[in-house]
Each structure stands twice: as C-alpha cells, then as structure tokens.
Amino acid sequence: MSGVKLKRNCLNVKQKLEILQQLDKRESASNDAEDVLNEGNTISHSAALQSVETLLDYMGRRGFDYGDINAVRKISVHIRQEIYKQQKQRSITDILKK
Predict the structure, then answer these.
(1) What is the superkingdom listed in this entry's lineage (predicted)?
(2) For residue 36, which phi and psi values (nearest 5 degrees)?
(3) What is the pLDDT along the chain (98 residues), one digit of tens a residue?
(4) DSSP secondary structure, the chain, as one string
(5) Which residues touch 38 (CB under 8 Å, ≥6 apart)?
C-alpha cells in the first residue's frame, strides 16, 4: 500500500453520543414496547445490543477509526455477557422451581 492514504473519520465524544441517540430513537420506533422496555424506563439488553450492532455496521461502512470501532465492540461484548448472565440466572431459577 505504498503511496495510498486512508481517510479516517474521528469523532469527538459529543458526536458519538449524538449518533447513538439517533440510532436509539430509530430502534425504539421500530421495536415493540415489550422488546424495548424492560422494567420501567430501562432498555432491554437485546434492544441495546441491536443498537450497538447497527452502530458498528454504520461505523464500518463509513471508515471510522479502528480505536472507535474497537471501543464499541467492547460495549457489544459487555452486553452479550449481561445477556448470558440473565439466561443462566433464568435457567437456575427454572431448575429450582421444579
């Protein structure tokens, strides 16, 4: 890749937050209330994961900085871990009910 320059888009924190909020609004509008809301005004893990995956797709297509994409991937991993913990807890609860 001699002589080829890659254009990288770097966003500040405010710009990243605005993108996340816009994606969140779109996802909230397209999902049912049961999927989006879980216990009051909190967003369900599945809705959050879907928003983060949409953001990753967007960032990948727009050529964002690798560090920014990696930070969002870490968020995705954390959400998946939380989903796994909930599923494991449900399994334990179901076993104890029997």
Answers:
(1) Eukaryota
(2) -80, -45
(3) 455 555 556 667 777 777 777 776 665 555 544 454 444 556 788 888 899 999 999 999 998 888 999 999 999 999 999 888 888 888 877 777 76
(4) -TTPPPP-B---HHHHHHHHHHHHHHHHHHS-HHHHBSSTTPBPHHHHHHHHHHHHHHHHHHTB-HHHHHHHHHHHHHHHHHHHHHHHHHHHHHHHH-
(5) 44, 45
